[in-house]
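Supplementary notes for students who missed Thursday's class. We covered one full example, reproduced here. Read the sequence, then the structure, then the short commentary at the end.
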Amino acid sequence: MRRITNFANSRDFTIRIHDLIPGGAHTYSKGDDQFPANAPAAIAHGKGARVWDLDGNEYIDCSMGLTSVSIGHGYEPVARAVCEAALLGTNFQRPATLELAAAERFLETVQTGDMVKFAKNGSTVTTAAVKLARAYTGRSRVALCREHNFFSYDDWFIVTTPCDRGIPEQTRSLTAGFSYNDIASVQSLFEQKNHNIACLIMEPVKFDPPQDGFLQKVAELCRAHGVVFILDEMISGFKWGLKGAQHHFDVKPDLSTWGKGIANGFSACALTGRADIMELGGIRSSGADKLFLISTTHGAETIGLAAMIATIDEFERHGMIESNWKRGEDLRGRLNNVIALHGLGNALEVKGEACLLALICRNAQGVPDDAYRTLMMQEMIARGVLFQGLFYTTWSHQDAELDEIVAAFGESCAIYSQAIESGSCSEHLIGPPARPVFRKRI
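Structure (token representation):
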């Protein structure tokens, strides 16, 4: 396969952007410390499942904008809907007519609540869900799943990570943790009569499926103890199904949060839920204490809502969910065949459902290792596959793209095998290993 070696413009870009933008990116997961040294510093443009960097190098995109681009880059029906909305005006002194149309379309499709509130980013709606739960229950604490690595950039979540600088220590007492598929860890949260837990928030699923009715048992415990049950569908929504992973696993939350793929990369997020909880953020209960829920100038900007409606339309029109699962299952089988061919069954593992696969990279001792993960990223990128650990099969990842991914993976596994055999990947890495986003020291 071709090997990409020209990164001259990328190197210049990296120096310049760090002088102007803290961290060199507006999302930590896109930072230089998350990629090998040979990764492109910036993307100039994309089309379908392919992107091009500043040096003209072409890549197949495996994670599609942190899984926010659910159909493809520059997908014309969605882009056209955005252009048409923009020409009619994007923001007004009163609600746009599109806001009602978007609410009706989203709720009738997703069917996960009685009301919806739109916003521009996921942290806004997850924090709004927590605020609603606190107002509804009169309690203060938040229970969150330890294995789910991101819920919000707000203090109530970030205080639970090693990156707690700048957050008052008192905030820490307002969170509690539990473990996925460990119902005893959830039960223990409510053992004390005055547990003061307002809500429990988790993703329906990550890469390990729920076992022994875990989600249903959590929902039952929350109901029994008057705790608001929140499912975060930022990642799982529009992958497991248009109605989310909650429908796939047949569990009903009180509130749900949505984002990333619901608008094919455009900025649109949503909070949905029971009317008796959501209405606390309304203005129709005359004389009641007012809850200041979400109030953002650009929360219902028409282009994001138009993109969301068009994305839903395209998913339904082409049966994209079923197609994505079918091709994802095919990709999983082919990747596993490559792993077996190279004798790497103890070092590499493809995890997750067909709609979103993760590659677990282990060292010679069978322990997950960031250096070895970086080596796999490095070799895939060198062969024209922009890879960060996920295989997200969208409508744009058709046979040609999957063939190239598998071919690159095969050649990368050959290098990986050499590192496993030698017991070290240091001689193969051309720069430092990627590092976790959530770490104590820079």
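Commentary. The two ends are 36 Å apart (CA to CA). The chain has two domains: 8-74+319-422, 91-300. If anything here is unclear, bring it to office hours.
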